[in-house]
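Consider this pair:
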Amino acid sequence: MIILTTKSRHKRKFSDSRKYLWIGTLEGANAVVTLTLLGGPFLTGYLLYLGASSSQIGFILAITTFVNVLQIAIAYLLQRIHSPKWTLIGLVAVHRLTWAATGLIPFLFDKSLWITVYIIMYTVAFVANAGAGIIWTNFMGDMVPASVRGRYFGIRNTIVNAVGSLTLFIGGQILSAYPGGKGFEILFMISLVFALCNIGMFFFYPNLPMTRSTETNLISMVKKPLRDRAFMMPVLFLSVWLLFQNMILPFFSYMMLELVGVGYDQVSIITVVQTVIGMCSLYVWGNLNAKYSNKFLLLCTLPIIAMSCVSWSLLAWIPTFAALLIAHSLVGIGVGGFNQMAFNFIIGDTPKTERPMFIAMYAAITGLAAFVGPIVGGLMFNKIKGLPMWFQTWGLAMLLGVCMLLLAGTLGRRVLLREGRHVSHRSEKQISG
C-alpha cells in the first residue's frame, strides 16, 4: 500500500511538472504574437510613421536595456513580496497593455507630441517588464529541472519562434496591403487581443515563492554577485560585446527600410527566414547544451553574430535580397543561441538563494552597455549621411563586424574558456546555496 501511494505521488508530481512546462510554452507562444507585432521591424516602421529620426529610433530601442539597471532595486524589493504570481501578472499587464496602447497616439495627441508620448509610454511599459523579467526568470529556474533545461528551452524557443515567424509574415502582408496608418491600426488591434490572452495565461502559472536571499540588506545582496569572479568576468565581457552588437544589429530594419529601400513585404519575408532558421538552430543549441557549458556555447555564438554584420558587404557582389537573407540567417542562428545560452547561464550558473540579485546584476550591467550601443549607433548613422552610399548601406556594418570578430577571438576566448568547453563543474548542487 505504501509503495502504491509513493508511486501515485511521484506520478502526480511528474504530471504537475509536465503541465507547468506546457503552460510556459503556450504562454510564450501567445506572448510572441503581441511582442512581434509591437517590436522588431514593425516597431521601426511605426516609429518612422510617427516621424522619428535615426537617433530617436536608437534612443527608443535603447530604453528596453537601460531600464534593466533598475532591476537591482527591483530584486531587493521583490524579496518582500508575498505573492510573486500576482505581482508578475500585474507587471505583465502594465507592460503588454501600455505598449499596445501606443497605437492610440496618433488619435489622441498632436503630431508634434507623438515621439515624446511614445517614449514616455514605452519607458513605463519596460520598467514594468524589468520587474516581471526577474520573477519570470526565477519561476522558470524553479519550474524547469536542471537535467532537461537545455533541451526544454530549445524546444520551447523553437515553438515560440515558429509562431513568431508566422506572425511576422502575416504582419508584413497586412502592412503591404494597407500601407500607412491603416495597416498599423490593424496590427495594434491584433496585438491588443493577444496581449489580453497572454495576461490570462499567467493565471495558470503556479504560485511559487520567490527565492529568498541569505542577506537582509541591499548592500550585502549586491556584494554577492560582485564577488563571484566566475560570474562577473563573463558578465563584464558580454557587456562590452553587447555595446558593439547594439551599435548595429538594432538598425538592420532601419538600414533595409530607409537606406536600401526594401519594402515591408520583403522585410517581413527576410525576418521570417531569420526567425525560422534561428528557430531550427535553437533545438541544436539545446542539445549541445547537454554536453557543452553555457559559456563555451556563448563563445560559439559570437563569431556567427559578427559575420552577420560582415556579410552586409555581400550587397556589393550579389543581389540585394540574397545578401540580406544571408545576413539575417546568421543573425537568427547567432542571436538565438546567444539569448538562450545567456538565459541558461544566469539561471544555471548562479546560486539559487541569490538568483534574483544575480539576474538583476546581469541585466543591469549588460543593460547599461546595451543602452549606450543603439544611441551611439544612431549618432553614427547621422554622422555618415554625407559619406558614399556604399559605406552607409554596408561599409559601417562590415567595419563593426570585423571589430566584433577580433573581440570574440581574443578577450572572448580568455574569459569564456577559463573553465573548459564541457558542462561546468559548478554543478546545481554546488551553487544551490
In short: Residues 90 and 375 are 30 Å apart (CA to CA). The chain is about 80% helix and 0% strand. Confidence is low (pLDDT under 50) at residues 1-14, 425-433. The two ends are 36 Å apart (CA to CA).
